[in-house]
């Protein structure tokens, strides 16, 4: 039993490593299978992307001190999206790739405190201070958004909307690409804007 | 009511506040000092002035360029100006690369100055001061990012004649202009194909240490900011390759190239723009600059086809066909039909070759003319076929006897199918003999859209078919051919010898490709082929058991010959070439370095199967006078061998608009323009070209 868990973890690590090495600073293409990963959330629970096959998954890279993240959380925009996702049975995974000592790095308790104080509604907050998943996905900014369909295929990557500023006043009237893509997927249509420019602070990877 | 009064009061207070507290010309924020300057103390109505917004950043902090790269946000300016005044776009200083983790941003450290032209209408009331305000938004980052903003204002005097501002403002503008990229005079060309974006610029425009060059694209998504770019000088071009981003450029591609200048070692920045020349011409920059018109190419193609008729490998085939006309005669309409069938055979074959070329090209293969001969299988098959044809001529075998195997059997069949296959055969055997005209036409064809490429290939075939067609359509001309007689069989036997010669040459090519063991297998195959044909020539006069034995042995020999032919190809190993001490192998990357060291470079692109190349080497390149001239001037003689496929050489050929060998390029020392020498070399023309190098020697 012990052995098999270890084996599983090694294989998973190897997979993530292989994907990181292959993708380098590149990234998965829309229309291709999204890189699989396994990560621990702020409650110590392990999440395998493969386990969510059959459901649409949203990945949100975040850093609570980044002005662009504050723009969307401060105005309740991100939480509104998370709640819409929850109602539509979409799995929303918030990912924190900040390395220890860097901006946005939090311990599990702080992560949960942030969730409750901001009224956030993610399915889970994944903590990966080594940045392996972020690099495998080519996550550059906070926020940086990805949508994976029920078959595990990447269907959207990019910014949360088309107004690349840190000004909350720009949320109204912006075209929210994530909301539009989720609606397209729900109606069985192709995602109209499958790739957009991600904007925000850089992800604070370790070296 | 109270509400209305309150609103009014607030409005009045706000108006008063703005009027009183006009925005200052500078401000200090958390991590920057920001200042606004005007280039003129008095601006001219009808022209205007330049404004400069300078952000002096804390040490280690940076702001972003208009394309911020993988993250970040460009500095933005929102102007408030009265009617009749129009601020332009920001003219940005040259950006720098700012890496984070595995990614890269584009931006500025220090004190970037953003220049903006302020246009003032001609009818601006002179003497009335002009107030401009700007709300500047910028994201300033070190490890973390902070959005900052400030509102700045300036009051300008306006008159008919401008007056420059005093120092230090003039110095700030001068320094800002020096930091602004200079626009290149000419557009380059770019293509996106096979997961790579390639941009090509005229080499004279940028004298960079190529490895220091980095290109900053104007827009997000065009290229991946973090992937390495490779830049190199190729011929007349500066070529950069980079990874396309999630939204590759279409139509236009522009940005800023920053590099270290070769001579001065200074950092320089130039604005570059390039137009899309399509995936089909990915490897052929010349197409964009020196296009040959389609009509010119068609004329060259027909001419080239005509010349092919005289090639040693084609002439015998044609002569046999012409002889059959003499022998059999026929009605006018029969003649005409056979002429049409022959043309169809030639065109069919060229169409097939064209399709293969276009197909290979779109599959991304580096194909060029003569590519067929890069395949040992094709060379082996050709040598078998021509050898069989030669034997048939030598042995005086009866034409039209239903000879199995070689294509010759088909060509000797009477009637239309015979004419068709003669045409096809003429086209096939013509391919090795790349006439100079044809190289240019096919070089052009290869970089054209598929339809044009096919048209040119067909024009080439038409040229090849033309003499025979004329003969069949104007029967009066056949009267010039002598009467049939015994001379005909002697002529046929004589015509076998050019064919044998071609076979010898093909075997030599095959030897280069498959080595001595493969060559011996091929020779044995030919021997068995000869045995089979000899048995056939004997057996057809025999009867009974002898005939049956002969048939069996003949077929067995033929089978064994085929097996040997196939295995000779499969066992192919690249032959070890004997190094030519006077030349060095082609290495494009070395050319610039050699020239920089003050030596000239002579590039010879050749292939074992290229007769023109070999002739040039014998009569011009390898002569004592030329060798002496090369060594007297310390010219580096580079030889590129295209006998087998070589992508680097194909690319190099394409950079000169060529799709085949030979190609001779003479680079003077330093960075003067290289000279492309004619495809047919003579000793005197080569000596003259080498002599012209001396002017460079005197200059330095």
Domains counted in the coordinates of chain A: how many?
Answer: 1
Report the order of strands and helices of chain A. HEEEHHEHEHEEEHE
Main sheet overview of chain A: 5 strands, mixed
Structural class of chain A, please?
alpha/beta
Q: Kindly estimate the percentage of residues of chain B that lie in beta strands according to DSSP.
A: 15-25%
Amino- and carboxy-terminal Cα gap of chain A: 35 Å
Shape of chain B: elongated
- Based on secondary structure, the structural category of chain B is alpha+beta
**Cα Rg of chain B:** 36 Å
Most extensive interface, chain pair and sizes? A-B, 31 and 26 residues
CATH architecture of chain A: 3-Layer(aba) Sandwich
The top level CATH class name of chain A: Alpha Beta
**What is the percent of helical residues of chain A?**
25-40%
Regarding quaternary structure, what we see is heterodimer
Classify the fold: give the CATH topology of chain A. Glutaredoxin
Mean pLDDT of chain B: 77
Short account of what is shown:
The complex is a heterodimer of chains A (207) and B (700). In chain A, 32% of the residues lie in helices and 17% in strands. Chain A has 207 residues and is of the alpha/beta class.
Notes on the structure:
The complex is a heterodimer of chains A (207) and B (700). With 207 residues, chain A is α/β, with parallel strands linked by helices. Chain A has 6 helices and 9 strands. Chain A has a single domain (2-202), classed as Glutaredoxin, CATH 3.40.30.10. Chain A has helices at 2-23, 67-74, 77-87, 108-117, 132-137, 177-186, and strands at residues 38-40, 46-48, 57-61, 91-96, 124-127, 141-142, 144-148, 154-158, 201-202. In chain A, strand 1 and strand 2 form a beta hairpin. The longest helix of chain A has 22 residues, at 2-23. Chain B folds into 4 domains: 22-180, Immunoglobulin-like, CATH 2.60.40.1250; 183-289, Immunoglobulin-like (Sandwich), CATH 2.60.40; 294-512, no CATH class; 584-699, Glutaredoxin (3-Layer(aba) Sandwich). Chain B is elongated, with a radius of gyration of 36 Å. Classes of the chains: A alpha/beta (207), B alpha+beta (700). The interface between A and B is medium-sized, with 31 and 26 residues.
